[in-house]
Amino acid sequence: MKLKKLMVLTAAFSMAMSITACGNNNNNGGNAAATNAPADNAAATDNAAATNSGNATATTDEIVPEDGASLVVWESKEERPFAEEMAKQFTAKYNVPVKIEEVAPPDQVGKLTQDGPSGLAADVILIPHDNLGKAASASLLLPNDIFGEQTKAENTEASIVGSSYDGELYGYPRAAETYALYYNKSLVKEAPKSFDDVLAFSKTFTDKSKNKYGIMWEVGNMYYGYTFIATTGGYLFGKDGTDKDDIGLNNAGAIEGLTAFAKLKEALPIKSGDINADIKRSLFTTGDVAMDITGPWELAAYKEALGDNLGIAPVPTINGKTAITFSGIKIFAVNAYTQYPNAAKLYARFASSKDAQLTLNKLIGSVPTNNEALADAQITSDPYVSAFAAQAKSSQPMPSIPEMGNVWSPVNAALPEIWDNNADPKAAMDKAVQQIKDLNNGATK
């Protein structure tokens, strides 16, 4: 869907305001039909009262699972408690067994590309919206047709934009995500307003010999590193986020921000490879890291560990500029090669409903996309969700064109070069941009 980026941002901001107002390759686990051909979408609705016109509406009572259906669902490790609960409820209601397999959401489209045609992939996958274009353009997904109009009516505009590609709705949105600054109030009395404040605090707290650090985030991951590119003027894919040939990751603004990024090693003097989600979580919850930049998926664990000492605030400013973070929508999608398209669509709908999104918020701490869920007291009375809403006002949706998949590896290589090896930011990003352009051009030949 080639909508103006302004529309996407406006929708994201509307979502934010409404919030404040209100695995491994398993050769035996896949249920996809190993026919080397996608499921017949017409056959998928033989038992449905709705048609595949794209304008049909249906309730979960108007579509029934195929006889003997069973499902495999790919889920993230962090959100497995939610997945297990949904599987239990779905099986109880529809008598369809559901097996959960852990696969990191950013890896799922790549795994589907390999395993879908051979019948080894999950029936329902969970992906960040920026992966949608690659999957949809390769005909790996079935459209969200039976429940399409309901999905559009019930969820925020931003989440529908993120769940669509080239005018077609594919996804079943379930959560809106960006990242913010978590801090331990027993160590940091007031959230820092700037990264200069972060450095000043860290000089009094960081002690590498004791494995104590003022702040930590995944410094080698572009998802977080993009803040230091975009805040000071860098960008991805030019006007409207759709021009694959206009890449501003190495312009003067990006280099300004990445120079500030490199300076922060004074607060976090360790190698990028020594930081991952598990390490970071352990250090933050035990008080050995005072601040952590991460997303709402850590909220439940951090609240349990820190209680009233947990605080959340917007990401600190960079060189006096309000920090811009990446934002995204997590969406369910149905594998085009599934043997059980009715059951798979039914599960995707069931596990992204208002009640499901409120369950996800309760168990994990996610931010809903469902409008009624956003207006629920469970959300409106939550100061932590409100903090993410504040950051969402300054977030930038990830591009969803297929070429977005070519960005991650080059930039994820450049950031550690800058951080670990003191590489010149301009030289490192020039190399990354050239690699991205080469991949883009190769993909279109």
Automatic annotation (TrEMBL):
Tell me which SUPFAM superfamilies the record gives.
Periplasmic binding protein-like II
Q: What is this protein called?
A: Maltodextrin-binding protein
Q: Where in the cell is it found?
A: Cell membrane
The lineage, from the top, is: Bacteria, Bacillati, Bacillota, Bacilli, Bacillales
User: Main site of residence?
Assistant: membrane
Which organism is this protein's natural source?
Paenibacillus auburnensis
| InterPro entries assigned to the protein according to its UniProt record, in alphabetical order | Maltose/Cyclodextrin-bd, SBP
Is Cell cycle a UniProt keyword of this protein? no
Question: What superkingdom heads the lineage?
Answer: Bacteria
Name the keywords, alphabetized.
Answer: Cell membrane, Lipoprotein, Membrane, Signal, Sugar transport, Transport
